[in-house]
Amino acid sequence: xxxxxxxxxxxxxxxxxxxxxxxxxxxxxxxxxxxxxxxxxxxxxxxxxxxxxxxxxxxxxxxxxxxxxxxxxxxxxxxxxxxxxxxxxxxxxxxxxxxxxxxxxxxxxxxxxxxx
Length: 116
Fold this sequence. Notes:
The structure is a single chain. This protein is an alpha+beta fold. The chain has four helices and five strands. Helix 3 (72-83) crosses helix 4. The chain is globular, with a radius of gyration of 14 Å.
């Protein structure tokens, strides 16, 4: 998978919302695909300005009809989040998002790497 952490910027307030960050992830995945990059799931973390909470969005490739593989990435994302006591705001086939304390983000990234 690919991951990125958005640092505070002028657009931080706009991207600190689950749907905005999800759409941003899909935009990046589409741009990478057009450049010839292999499609991989993406994790994106954005800290809400003035808060100690970080929004983490996990996005998979858009599924193909008849796929036999299921969503291994989504299951790992959820398992690690539950291990850290994160609360799910949304859990869908193509994307999931959680909110974590800023101090738990590194632990989340380490554990998801271990799971996958």
